[in-house]
Amino acid sequence: MRIIPIRLTGGKALPKFFGLLGMALLVSSLLLGGCRRVPGQGEPGGVAPAVVTVWHSLQGSELNALTLQLQSLMREQPGVIVKTVYIPEDRFAAQAFQAEAGGAGPQIFLARREVIRQLYFQGALAPLAAANQDGFPAAQAEFRFGGKDYAAPWLTDVALFFYRQDLVPPPPTLAGLLQKGGLALAAFDAATLAPWWRAQGGHVLVDGQPALAAPENSSFVQQFAAAQDQQKLLVTPTAEALFAGGQYPFLVGWASRAPQLSAPWASLPLSDLVGGQEEALLGPTLAVANSAVQTTPALRGAIAAVEGFLLRPEVEAEMTKAGHRVPANRQFYQRAEAKQGLWPQVFQVLSKAWVVEGSAPEWKLLPIQDSAWASAMAHKAAVPEALAKAQADAIKALQQPGS
């Protein structure tokens, strides 16, 4: 082998062979260094974990379930720390407005539909950070504004018709049931009775105008008021206990409360008793949303990770065990546990529920109507007067911007 000398600045010559050897050693060192694993986010020596704050109004068993699920999330994803802050529901929107006005506030909100609407209209929400492909159409539509999803339905509820198998046979229809008697209602409102009400021609809008005092609405309320006066119907928060105790053989109540009925019962969707065509209105719905101020580029990935975790069907299943709501995730109803009991009925109701988008005027009118119905049933006003006042209030509500 011929060695060719090379000359350095100092005039000394080194063999080219040793120069090539040094270069090879340098390259090897760089390659070996590049193979060494860099600590991940949240690991010792790595980038600090992302901190995501969640505001909520959950209490009792639901809060306990949420805490356990978020602990599981942090074990699974050490790069994310989740902190929860309890905010009373009646102060939720006001505190969010004050916090975000000062550039503060949480990254994520867990709140009921009515609070989410307030947050949206005061500009507190950003479009949803996590993709949600598994929400039922009616549930997802409630949080869609201007074609964008500003929240994802998480947990909801639907009303079912329950009957005591040991006391009565299932009625073929709802026709004549009030005259027969024995019905208890957890609430007398549109969310509880939408299929029954709509099957009798009930509506809140006709050609875009309020119709709360329409003859069909008046007739619907009057028949319930008459049945109540005849003691064939009882509207009470203790309706479930009366049904479980056998005092009332029929009940229209929330699906989530079925495990507490502790009696030989069976259930049916209300729509099955009115020809199968009428759509239900979803009950109390809890949704996940993210902040307009705190959804920053640096935190967007962590926010999406937390939202995506909460929207998993197995997480919603654990939250459902708290006993206050049912999953709003279609994937949950594909699980083996959801193929039995009343879950197929809940799936049926959710799949064909009444689609009312977030910006629809119905969200302004339905609370006004519910208040009028309650006033009439409590004999605070006669049915025509209560609905006439509601009609006037509805016209004023539609003239006001936002919610």
Task: Kindly describe this structure.
Helix 2 links the parallel strand 3 and strand 4 (80-86). The protein has two domains: 50-157 and 284-343, D-Maltodextrin-Binding Protein, domain 2 (3-Layer(aba) Sandwich); 159-281 and 361-398, D-Maltodextrin-Binding Protein, domain 2 (3-Layer(aba) Sandwich), CATH 3.40.190.10. With 403 residues, the protein is α+β, with helices and mostly antiparallel strands. The protein is globular and about 70 Å long. Strands 3, 4, 5, 6, 9, 17 and 18 form a seven-stranded mixed beta sheet that branches. The chain starts with a strand and ends in a 5-residue tail after the last helix. It is built from 14 helices and 18 strands. Helix 3 runs parallel beside helix 4 (113-121) and helix 13 packs antiparallel against helix 14 (383-398).
Topology overview:
Blueprint (H helix, E strand, L loop, with lengths): L4 E3 L5 E3 H20 L14 E7 L3 H17 L3 E7 L5 H10 L6 E5 H9 L3 E2 L10 H5 L2 E2 L2 E2 L2 E5 L2 E6 L12 H4 L2 E3 L4 H10 L5 E2 L2 E2 L4 H15 L3 E3 L3 H6 L5 E5 L10 E4 L17 E6 L5 H14 L2 H8 L5 E2 L15 H9 L10 H16 L5 H16 L5
Parallel strand pairs: 3-4, 3-5, 11-14, 11-15
Antiparallel strand pairs: 1-2, 5-17, 6-17, 7-8, 9-17, 9-18, 10-15, 10-16, 12-13
Helix pairs in contact: 2-11, 3-4, 13-14
